[in-house]
Design brief:
The chain contains nine helices and 25 strands. It has about 400 residues and is α+β, with helices and mostly antiparallel strands.
C-alpha cells in the first residue's frame, strides 16, 4: 500500500512537471512562412533557380553591362530580402541575398553573367571533317571543354553564314603547312576577321596560323623566321617553353596558371609540353631579334626593350633552354589604337594535341605532358574571353 502511494505520488509529480514544462515552452514563433524566391528575372530573362543548392543563375546576352542590373524578384507577401532589390545593381561578382519571413530565413547566391561564344576556325566544312590529326584533336578537346564553343569554317564567313562579330574569341589552330590557305586570305574573310580584331575581338593563333599576324597587318616588320612543317621524327628529348625571358620571369602570366614548371638551379623556369617520341617540329617562331634591332648582342636588355616597345607586345616564351633574347615563340600582342583586341601567338613547336603513335621511343603516342598543353590552351582562351 505504501509503495502504491509512493509510486502514485511520483507519477503525479512527473505529470505535473510535464505540464508545467509544456506551458513554459509553448512557442509563438512563426515557422511556417514562405522564404523562397519564386522568380528572378532580368530584362525578361528568367534566372535558373536551384532550390536544393540555393543558387540562381541568370545568363544574359553578350554585351550586357552586369554592373548595372535591374532585377525583378517574386517573393512571398511579408517577406523581406536583403540587400534590397534596386535598379542598377552591380553583379560583377555573385551576390548573396537573405530572405526573412516571420521567424525563418533562407539565403540564395545569385550569379548574373553574359553568354558569349568562342569560335574554332578551320578550313574544313565542319569539325567532324577536319583531316589534320592535331587540328582534329584540338577541336575535339575544345568542344569537350567549351559548351559555348562553335565551329566556324572560313567558307561560312565568306558566304555570310557566320557573323564573327557575334563572337568574343576566335581560335585558329592551323598545323597543315607554312603557307596559309587561300580561303583565309580571301578579301571577304580577311576583312571580317580584321574588323573583328580591330574592334576589340580577341584571337588565339597556334602553329602555322601565327603567320596570320602579318596577314592581319598587326605585324608589319619582317624578321628572320624558323618555320617547320615537315613530317618530323623520333626524338629522345622533352621539349618545352622557356618562360624566363632573359632577365624577365613571365611565369606569373595568366596563360601559365597551374601548369607544371621545371625549375633549374639558376632560377630558370620552363614548361614541358611534349616528351620523347615522334615530334612534328611545327614551329613558327621569330629568331635573330637583337640582330634585327640594330645588331645588338643576343643578351642585351636593349633588344628586349626595343622589341616589346616597338610592337606593344609581351614576350612570354622562348625555346626551353634559351637564356637570352635571340628568339621568341610565345607572345601577347596587346591592344593598340588600330587593333583594339588582344592576340596570343603560340608558335613554338611541341604544342601538339595528338603526338604521333609511331617510332621506337614512344610507340603509344601518349604525351606525358599533354595536360600542360591542355591547360595552357584553356588558360589562353579563358584569358582572351575576359573583356578588354
Amino acid at each position: 500500500m505504501k509503495n502504491f502511494i509512493k509510486y502514485t505520488f511520483i507519477l503525479t509529480l512527473f505529470i505535473g512537471l510535464f505540464h508545467s514544462c509544456e506551458d513554459k515552452y509553448t512557442s509563438t514563433l512563426e515557422l511556417d512562412k514562405d522564404v523562397t524566391i519564386a522568380e528572378f528575372t532580368v530584362n525578361g530573362v528568367n534566372g535558373v533557380i536551384n532550390e536544393k543548392n540555393k543558387t540562381i543563375v541568370v545568363t544574359m546576352p553578350d554585351g550586357t553591362d552586369v554592373s548595372k542590373i535591374s532585377p525583378i524578384v517574386k517573393i512571398a507577401e511579408g517577406a523581406v530580402i536583403t540587400p534590397a532589390i534596386t535598379s542598377n545593381m552591380d553583379f560583377s561578382e555573385p551576390i548573396e541575398f537573405t530572405l526573412v519571413n516571420g521567424d525563418v530565413f533562407s539565403k540564395y547566391t545569385v550569379n548574373v553573367s553574359e553568354e558569349f561564344f568562342i569560335g574554332f576556325l578551320g578550313t574544313a566544312a565542319s569539325a567532324s571533317s577536319i583531316v589534320d590529326d592535331d587540328e582534329k584533336a584540338a577541336a575535339a578537346w575544345f568542344f569537350q571543354n567549351y559548351s559555348n564553343g562553335k565551329y566556324i569554317g572560313f567558307d561560312d564567313i565568306k558566304n555570310g553564314k557566320v557573323d564573327v562579330s557575334k563572337f568574343r574569341v576566335l581560335w585558329w589552330y592551323y598545323d597543315s603547312g607554312r603557307n596559309l590557305p587561300e580561303i583565309a586570305k580571301d578579301a571577304t574573310v580577311l576583312n571580317a576577321i580584321t574588323n573583328f580584331y580591330k574592334t576589340g575581338g580577341n584571337l588565339l593563333l597556334n602553329s602555322h596560323a601565327c603567320a596570320y599576324l602579318w596577314t592581319l597587318g598587326r605585324m608589319t616588320d619582317t624578321y628572320e623566321m624558323v618555320i617547320g612543317d615537315g613530317e618530323g621524327g623520333d626524338n629522345p628529348d622533352t621539349w618545352g617553353i622557356g618562360v624566363t625571358i632573359g632577365a624577365h620571369d613571365m611565369s606569373s602570366h595568366p596563360i601559365y596558371k597551374g601548369v607544371t614548371l621545371n625549375l633549374e638551379g639558376d632560377g630558370y623556369k620552363s614548361v614541358p609540353v611534349i616528351g620523347p617520341g615522334w615530334k612534328e617540329d611545327h614551329n613558327y617562331v621569330i629568331v635573330s631579334i637583337p640582330a634585327k634591332l640594330g645588331g645588338l648582342p643576343n643578351n642585351d636588355e636593349a633588344a628586349y626593350t626595343a622589341f616589346t616597345t616597338k610592337h606593344n607586345v609581351k614576350w612570354l616564351g622562348v625555346w626551353a633552354g634559351i637564356r637570352d633574347y635571340w628568339m621568341g615563340g610565345v607572345f601577347e600582342f596587346s591592344p593598340t589604337t588600330d587593333y583594339k583586341g588582344k592576340l596570343l601567338y603560340l608558335g613554338i613547336g611541341g604544342i601538339e594535341f595528338s603526338q604521333n603513335a609511331k617510332g621506337e621511343r614512344n610507340p603509344s603516342g601518349v604525351n606525358a605532358y599533354q595536360s600542360n598543353i591542355n591547360l595552357l590552351t584553356k588558360n589562353s582562351l579563358d584569358y582572351l574571353a575576359i573583356k578588354n
